[in-house]
From TrEMBL:
Residues 189-286 form the HTH araC/xylS-type domain. GO terms for molecular function: DNA-binding transcription factor activity; sequence-specific DNA binding. Keywords: DNA-binding, Transcription, Transcription regulation. SUPFAM superfamilies: Homeodomain-like. This is AraC family transcriptional regulator. Signal peptide: none annotated. PANTHER family: ARAC-FAMILY TRANSCRIPTIONAL REGULATOR, TRANSCRIPTIONAL REGULATORY PROTEIN. InterPro entries: Homeodomain-like_sf, HTH_AraC.
Length: 293
């Protein structure tokens, strides 16, 4: 039986979630930013607009527009003296959270982010925009106590892309950025975010391709290249995972099909059996046998 990819564990020890994303917008918010993060968080801090004074382990540096700082867990840090206007993104990740909420292979430098020295790098405008988009997409997902199945996909793929993008940025410093790679990741992220919103009613690749201003073939190729699965496979997988969750209670099968965007119970049953070798009714009976109340 295919495992349910529902909400993953999101908390480490203590009151802090495993991932925190924060966008301080004024002096007061900047000054208290570090209180939102725990000692087990590794920090990514990016200045998109303005500048800010950054202190870490007793040392102070000025961070200007486009500066990205990686602070491994266990370091004491704070910010003050921001200019106005200021636009900063701060993302904290625990090692445990990453290991429980990512897909695919992690970059070779993964352990460095969580255990080695503090590093800083100046990014170009395209890279700043892409990283801020990543922060923005991951932020709302991290605030959910019980993320939906679709948002769980966005979260896990987003974290994986973030870590690989970090490796690319530090490898490329001093060289020319690989904008094609960034553009591909950007397209996949937008697709994942659209899918999380519309998967229940929009089952065709054409809908997502139209909204992303690309052809269906191009979208499917790019998603396959970045994730190992085609866009259609992601749509099907998300629908199947939600259907299996809904079939665990006594909701009428006809109602489950309607909720997932199928016009008739026959269409839903045909879709489900094609992708699981069981009818919805047979799957429900099997689950009740395996996990009796």
């Amino acid at each position: 039986m295919t495992p349910i990819l529902g909400p993953q564990k999101t908390h480490d020890r203590g009151p802090y979630p495993g991932m925190v994303v924060h966008f301080p917008k004024n002096m007061q918010q900047v000054a208290r930013t570090n209180s939102l993060f725990g000692p087990f968080h590794s920090i990514l801090l990016l200045v998109k607009k303005g500048r800010v004074q950054f202190q870490v382990n007793g040392n102070s540096i000025v961070l200007y527009k486009g500066r990205l700082v990686v602070v491994p867990r266990g370091n004491l840090w704070s910010m003050d003296g921001p200019t106005s206007p200021i636009q900063i993104g701060v993302l904290g990740l625990s090692r445990k959270f990453v290991l429980e909420n990512t897909v695919g292979s992690l970059p070779p430098s993964f352990m460095w982010y969580f255990g080695k020295g503090i590093r800083t790098i100046a990014l170009g405008q395209d890279d700043v925009s892409f990283m801020f988009l990543l922060f923005s997409l991951l932020g709302p997902k991290s605030h959910e106590a019980e993320p939906s199945i679709a948002n769980g996909h966005v979260l896990r793929h987003g974290i994986n892309m973030l870590l690989w993008e970090l490796q690319r940025l530090f490898q490329d410093q001093g060289g020319s950025p690989t904008s094609v790679s960034t553009a591909g990741h950007l397209l996949v992220l937008h697709f994942m975010d659209l899918l999380a919103t519309h998967y229940r009613m929009e089952h065709k690749i054409g809908f997502y391709a139209k909204h992303l201003h690309v052809t269906a073939d191009h979208l499917s190729r790019m998603v396959k290249k970045r994730t190992g699965k085609t866009a259609k496979e992601h749509i099907t997988e998300t629908l199947m995972e939600e259907a299996k969750v809904l079939l665990r209670d006594n909701t009428p099968i006809k109602e489950i099909g309607r909720v997932l965007g199928f016009r008739a119970i026959y269409d839903f049953s045909k879709f489900f059996k094609r992708n699981s070798s069981l009818s919805p009714r047979s799957y429900r009976e099997k689950i009740k046998t395996l996990y009796p109340e």
